[in-house]
Design brief:
It is built from 9 helices and 13 strands. With 340 residues, it is α/β, with parallel strands linked by helices. It folds into 2 domains: 141 residues, Nucleotidyltransferase, domain 5; 188 residues, ATPase, nucleotide binding domain (Nucleotidyltransferase, domain 5, 2-Layer Sandwich). The strands form 4 sheets. The protein has a 5-stranded mixed beta sheet. Strands 9-8-10-13 form a 4-stranded mixed beta sheet, with helices on both faces. Helix 3 packs across helix 9 and helix 6 crosses helix 7. It is globular, with a radius of gyration of 21 Å. It starts with 7 loop residues before the first strand and ends with a helix.
Length: 340
């Protein structure tokens, strides 16, 4: 059978700076190489459509087929959405809000499209690469914010009635700033987990720490760049075992684990997968120890091990395996599930 007669499905992961994409055939096998193009999500959805179409065409070209052989496209967005309509602006431009992106892009490219959020997509991508996985999976990814997704034991993505589930960053944790105040989250609420576990949180924590006299001679205090730029570089300092960076990430990891314990108590996924940029760092083993410490101190014993067989772990926490393309891969599989 020639490539032209085969049917394919594409996964598109729309980020703030890049769009990642992958193609699979109808049996679920990846075809060709993954493709990455620039994203213009902050400039408008019409500009983004041009880039999305470019990615799809590149995927087709790499295996010598045409866009007409594509039977479905799965697409994720970094925003709340329901039935294809964007419900939250997040890092997108204003014209996305209230727009049925799923329908408009399908009409633009001439292929059926299914859309969900990026946390759901990455969760499914991580589930699918674990070929022998049985049971559920919860995916959590610290980034600019804290995203997440849940795969049920039958392998289905749990999206909620309105596709608004798994806003994991906005559960409340009982940690306060040195002045006793609960930190304000980017969502406007106070005391959210995301207010401690995110790039935005690192900016706030770094600013507080640098005001302490103990760090007056720290290189970041002598640097005249913005606090945003300094926070972005904090990971590099942690990889060099810098005391300030380690202190901040240690606190973050512990609070992250504490929050995970409450999520596990509600959802009992069996496997918690941590994605995002921290999964690629050289200090990730240390960070995982801090996560597990917070988790152990908050979780009930039954969520750590089987009460009748101590050798059986009831909740495993591990790093993501699929890297930056987890979302794209998950959306390709979701396209098969929803559009085949």
């Amino acid at each position: 059978m020639s490539n032209q007669k085969k049917h394919y499905y594409v996964g598109l992961d729309i980020g703030g700076t890049t769009i990642k994409s992958v193609m699979i055939d109808e049996t679920g096998n990846q075809t060709g190489e993954m493709v990455e193009v620039r994203s213009y999500a902050s400039q408008g959805y019409r500009y983004t459509f041009v880039q999305l179409e470019k990615a799809v065409q590149l995927l087709a070209d790499k295996i010598g087929t045409s866009v007409s052989s594509i039977r479905g496209i799965g697409m994720d967005v970094p925003s709340l959405n329901c039935n294809g309509v964007i419900w939250g602006q997040a890092n997108l431009s204003k014209d996305w809000f209230g727009t049925n992106i799923q329908q408009l892009f399908s009409e633009h490219i001439g292929v059926p499209v299914y859309m969900t959020n990026d946390g759901n997509a990455a969760a499914l991508g991580e589930y699918k690469i674990r070929k022998k996985r049985s049971g559920g999976l919860m995916f959590l990814a610290p980034g600019t914010g804290l995203g997440g997704g849940l795969i049920l034991p039958d392998g289905k993505v749990y999206e909620g009635t309105n596709n608004l589930s798994m806003e994991v960053g906005h559960i409340t944790v009982p940690f306060r700033e040195p002045d006793g105040e609960l930190p304000t989250c980017s969502c406007g609420l106070r005391g959210c987990l995301e207010a401690w576990v995110s790039l935005i949180a690192l900016q706030r924590r770094l600013k507080i720490e640098l005001a302490d006299q103990i760090w007056i001679n720290h290189p970041l205090n002598k640097d005249h760049s913005s606090i945003e730029e300094k926070a972005f570089r904090l990971r590099d300092f942690a990889e060099k075992n810098d005391p300030l960076a380690i202190k901040i990430f240690k606190q973050q990891g512990y609070i992250f684990g504490y929050g995970i314990a409450d999520l596990v108590r509600l959802l009992d996924p069996g496997l918690v997968v941590i994605g995002g940029g921290l999964a690629e760092t050289t200090f990730r083993d240390q960070y995982m120890k801090w996560i597990r410490k917070g988790f152990k101190e908050r979780a009930w014993e039954v969520y750590l091990k089987n009460p009748f067989d101590s050798k059986k772990v009831t909740t495993r926490i591990e790093w993501a395996k699929s890297g930056d393309f987890a979302g794209a891969l998950g959306m390709a599989y979701m396209a098969i599930e929803k559009l085949k």
